[in-house]
Amino acid sequence: MLPISQRARTVQASPIRKLKPLADQAKRAGKRVYHLNIGQPDIPTPKEYFDGIRQAAQGVLAYSPSQGLDEALDALAEYYRTFGIALTRDELIVTTGGSEAITFALLAVTDVGDEILVPEPFYTNYNSYAQITGVQIVPIETRAEEGFRLPERKLIESKITPKTRAILFCNPGNPTGVVYTKAELEMLAEIARTHHLYLISDEVYREFTYDGAQAISALQLSGVEDRAILVDSISKRFSACGARLGVIASKNASVMESALKFAQARLSPPTLEQYGLIHLLKSSQYQNYVREMISEFARRRDLVYSELQRMPGVICAKPQGAFYVIAKLPVEDAEHFVRWLLTDFALQNETVMLAPAAEFYATPGKGRDEVRIAYVLNTDALRRAMRILREGLQAYTKTR
Amino acid sequence: MLPISQRARTVQASPIRKLKPLADQAKRAGKRVYHLNIGQPDIPTPKEYFDGIRQAAQGVLAYSPSQGLDEALDALAEYYRTFGIALTRDELIVTTGGSEAITFALLAVTDVGDEILVPEPFYTNYNSYAQITGVQIVPIETRAEEGFRLPERKLIESKITPKTRAILFCNPGNPTGVVYTKAELEMLAEIARTHHLYLISDEVYREFTYDGAQAISALQLSGVEDRAILVDSISKRFSACGARLGVIASKNASVMESALKFAQARLSPPTLEQYGLIHLLKSSQYQNYVREMISEFARRRDLVYSELQRMPGVICAKPQGAFYVIAKLPVEDAEHFVRWLLTDFALQNETVMLAPAAEFYATPGKGRDEVRIAYVLNTDALRRAMRILREGLQAYTKTR
Question: Chain A: residue nearest B227 by CA?
Fold first, then answer.
């Protein structure tokens, strides 16, 4: 047998996929499974998005420019302007999802063997982008007990080596639900300035903030215009995960020229989807859509948080953003518990699927007793899922 | 200014883009430009494709499985079956265009610093995929005068080093129009077997063959089931370049498991587009669509070839496949001529844009007097474009 590559052997398999057979088995056995394990919202995509696609679905389905359609770039610039972020066409590229935006950012500012700092726990696919681009992730540890706030500057600086090229972070945070304060972001900016690092800011959850918290964009920080790179996606805010549309944006012309060369290699982001986005962003409805969605997610967060508070031995910080919460459970091995919920437990023939949190940590052994809960179901379903989790926990801990 | 990465500096900018400002300028000055420089067909995409998208354009636009929708995998398996290629679901992954399929193939079988053999001239973006994945392309020279046929086995073998991992080739060929014979493919297979190499076969032009030529798939060759990797795209055969749907397929389970891990990192190919493809492949119309399109391209090829034959000093082989022809022109620097056509020449205020062929060669200095002509316009437009080219050549050579 011919060997596959070393990088193919080391790149991680999707941790979610590992447990999928168990969920499938439970469903085949007639169990209903509440999926709180993935960041796939249940809210219908805006009608205006589909209208835009329908109108464009004719003629020749041609490549769009590699950078994206001019109209899409203009509509996106206008969208960012509503947040006080001024971007010209040259400072924007439409990417095939946020995943591609992060990959382009890493390709543009790192070489094989370089390092990037990432606050931990972090979105597990960052591992894959790093492996594919040959970059080493150096985690900045943050802890559930401290609400996943950033540690002090010295601790972060102690991780910097001559190979460090960037700090990559997600704000609002997946999986933590943390929204960084201005002071935290200014500290990162100061570190980036002092140590000649890029700041790669993953802002796909921009609008998902609660209790008056506001996500500050890296492009709004002063003194880092030459090193701030925004990566973004329409997946969450427009409930359009399947569209595969994202953005990379920066005021650094060399970074954008580099990203464009990588974009040219893959020819074009999906064309019809861009027409959907243009039509949506031009409609007067999209801001209402987002506002209503966020209200709904705020209700969900309140419900999940208060239910978790009622569960004996469960510890979690109140998330201020995104649609995740990390909960420390009174179990030794959260993955074992997650499996057990699928294979051995049911409440009136229903169960719940969670994401073991260890997969969001790079530091071995961390997060073993934690799960990530994505509150992506309606409040009735969530209430039910929380009851299943509570009773499941009770039954599980009793049998240990 | 913070430095960008070494790989960002070395990755090529799109050669087509380099000349685009000149074409834009010509158009702004009121000139009509016939674009024979890019592989973007002008044929309307099948109605059934758009119907499938319209029907699916509602509800939640969710991620598809990373491997692709089950229905898409089944429809694709059935499509390949019509060519005598039997594939199970596990042997197929839906990719975001053929570009991604090639990248996944390279990531799966090569590491940074490895080498791949590629018959030259080749599709210029192969350079980008190689640069992004850190792989070195070693060209196998073929020549216009010999109709771009493969050289003898010994010459190919002389390029193999301990770092060689694969032979990547495009069949039918972009930019050559060559369709490899069974003997040529069996020679490549024999080399792959003897020297433990993968065969990565880019078959996006599968149906585009003329004069009874037939494209043989790498998956139809015997004795290389463990090392043949098919990369494919629906862009050309269904005139759906903007869909961004491709395929990677192999009987080698390790390769497919590796490719799936890379696919999981980017979450999902575009979802709605897959519904378009499913609906199209399930309709009884798609084979007629392809057949009619190929007849049309055969007429175009005949016209372009016979027009080129009439031009003094122009040499070209009759292409048997794809929709390109490489023509050797009686000029020293084809890129200069291509620029001149845009800036200094017009026939009744019309001109033509071609692709300088040097960009398709890795060997420095090769192809300098050649252009690639993509016959992607209707026969009336092509006839006109060929007249412009003939008169342009005449005027240009007179002024030298």
Answer: A2
- Enumerate domains of chain A plus CATH numbers: 6-44+287-399 (3.90.1150.10), 47-282 (3.40.640.10)
Contacts of A102 in chain B (CB under 8 A): none
Q: Which pair of structure tokens corresponds to residue A284?
A: 């007067």
Question: Per the omega criterion (within 30 degrees of 0), is the bond before A46 cis?
Answer: no
Nearest neighbour of B57 by CB, restricted to A50, A61, A111:
A50
Residue B116 sits at the chain A interface (C-beta within 8 Å): no
The answer to whether A242 contacts B128, with C-beta atoms less than 8 Å apart, is no
B202: left (phi over 0), alpha (psi -120 to 50) or beta: beta
Say whether the peptide bond before residue B121 is cis (omega within 30 degrees of 0): yes
Q: Which two tokens stand for residue B195?
A: 């020297």
Å between A310 CA and nearest CA of chain B: 32
Contact at CB, B96 and A266, closer than 8 angstroms: yes
Of residues A66, A242, A267, nearest to B62 (C-beta): A242
Structure tokens at A137: 């992730």
DSSP structure string for B148-216: T----HHHHHTT--TTEEEEEEESSPTTT-----HHHHHHHHHHHHHHT-EEEEE-TTTT-B-TT--PP
CB of A301 within 8 A of CB of A375?
Answer: yes
Give the β-pairing of A370-374 and A115-120: unpaired
Cβ neighbours of B279 in A, within 8 Å: none
Residue-by-residue pLDDT tens, chain A, 400 positions: 799 999 999 998 887 778 889 999 999 999 999 999 988 899 999 999 999 999 999 999 999 999 999 999 999 999 999 999 999 999 999 999 999 999 999 999 999 999 999 999 999 999 999 999 999 999 999 998 899 999 999 999 999 999 999 999 999 999 999 999 999 999 999 999 999 999 999 999 999 999 999 999 999 999 999 999 999 999 999 999 999 999 999 999 999 999 999 999 999 999 999 999 999 999 988 999 999 999 999 999 999 999 999 999 999 989 999 999 999 999 999 999 999 999 999 999 999 999 999 999 999 999 999 999 999 999 999 999 999 999 999 999 988 7
Cβ of B264 within 8 Å of Cβ of A62? The answer is no
Where do runs of H (alpha helix) occur along chain B? 6-10, 15-28, 47-56, 70-81, 97-109, 125-133, 153-157, 182-195, 253-265, 271-282, 286-309, 334-343, 379-399
Pick from A54, A242, A252: CB nearest B61: A242
Neighbours of A174 (CB within 10 A): 27
pTM of the model: 0.96
Interface of B with A in 42-61 (CB under 8 A): 42-45, 49-50, 53-54, 57-61
State the smallest CA–CA distance between residue A322 and chain B in angstroms: 18
Phi-psi region for residue B311, left (φ > 0), alpha (ψ -120 to 50) or beta? beta
Say what the ipTM of the complex is. 0.95
CA A288/CA A277 separation, integer angstroms? 15
How far apart (Å, rounded) are the C-alpha atoms in residues B32 and A267?
24
Which residues 67-96 of A have a C-beta within 8 angstroms of B?
96
**Considering CB atoms only, which of A17, A53, A197 is closest to B57?**
A53
Burial status of residue A210 (CB atoms within 10 A of its CB: 0-12, 13-18, 19 or more): buried
- Chain B residues inside the 8 Å CB shell of A103: 266
Strand-pair partners of A356:
A371
Q: Listing from the earlier edge strand, what are the strands of the sheet with A92-95?
A: A92-95, A246-250, A228-233, A198-202, A164-170, A115-120, A136-141
